[in-house]
Amino acid sequence: MSLQEKLEALKHETLAKIEAATDLVALNQIRVETLGKKGPITEVLRGMKDLSAEERPKVGSFANEIRDALAESLEARKEVLEINAMNEALAKERIDVTLSGKQMPIGTRHVLTQIIEEMEDIFVGMGYQVVEGYEVERDHYNFQRMNLPKDHPARDMQDTFYITDEILLRTHTSPVQARTMEKHDFSKGPLRMVSPGKVFRRDTDDATHSHQFHQIEGLVIDEKVTMGDLKGTLEVLMQQMFGADREIRLRPSYFPFTEPSVEVDVSCFKCGGQGCNVCKQTGWIEILGAGMVHPNVLEMSGIDATKYSGFAFGLGPDRIAMLRYGVNDIRDFYHNDIRFIHQFKGE
Hints:
This protein has about 350 residues and is of the alpha+beta class. The protein has two domains: about 5-90; about 110-340, Bira Bifunctional Protein, Domain 2 (BirA Bifunctional Protein, domain 2). It has eleven helices and nine strands. The protein has helices at about 5-20, 25-35, 40-45, 55-90, 110-125, 140, 175-185, 225-240, 295-300, 315-325, 340, and strands at about 130, 135-140, 165-170, 190-200, 210-220, 250-255, 260-265, 285-295, 310-315. It has a seven-stranded mixed β-sheet, sandwiched between helices. A two-stranded antiparallel ribbon has the order 2-3. α2 packs antiparallel against α4. It starts with a helix and ends in a 6-residue tail after the last helix.
């Protein structure tokens, strides 16, 4: 049998094997056995040196044609097998779109976040800016700039966690006010701000106290600001938070950073002032502290206390949330119990 006849027979035999191949592994094995370095076509090409000058180009051309034909057939079969493999995989992994989908749990903002954002919206509507600051503060801004010098006895009410003698976890958000006052340019208008955030005090945790809680403090400084402006502002806030028929009352108090200082009560939103367990039968609920900014606080920020005056107030979103939703233990807000948190879905 001549070389050409052997190559023709090899072609038909290999084409049959290619057509019968059922997977890519078997097909690759045929490729290696037929077209590889040790394959029959390669051996034919190596034996051409023994052919005459007339036969050599004819056999070489025929061998290349067969090699190209087999390579083309292998590639075509490979595409078919790849498509078949993909279709089989898709059939096994097919998703029945007619099945009902899984209900994904939808989260919500924490109830304290909701309360804080609600109060921020109220103040922004009254022309205030929202300013946030550092939770780790200097004694200078946390105490001294609030008219609480070293060894002042009122510091005992705000004992906190100290990192060094001068660096501490803030006990109120008042340092934000001090930093804002020293930067504010009153030639561009009055200062109206609220400063929300976490504060820290070394309290013993119980149902109404926590070593960490939240505050929103407000500050307004301008010419001819009065206590009447303070009362009107707080009335708007309480009516927005607890109902349009709410009233407030001011009682004399003491805070080092305000003079005069007041405690602010709101008429009970549960009994309307008739007396109940929420207001302890008084008809009023103590809600926050406030007052006119102490001249010393203004002067320490470089503000002329003979020209400018202002009022400040501070309240706890935690307490607001406890009163609004009837929560008896402040610690429930921080235990991250999903059953508790999911009760306050918000809007």
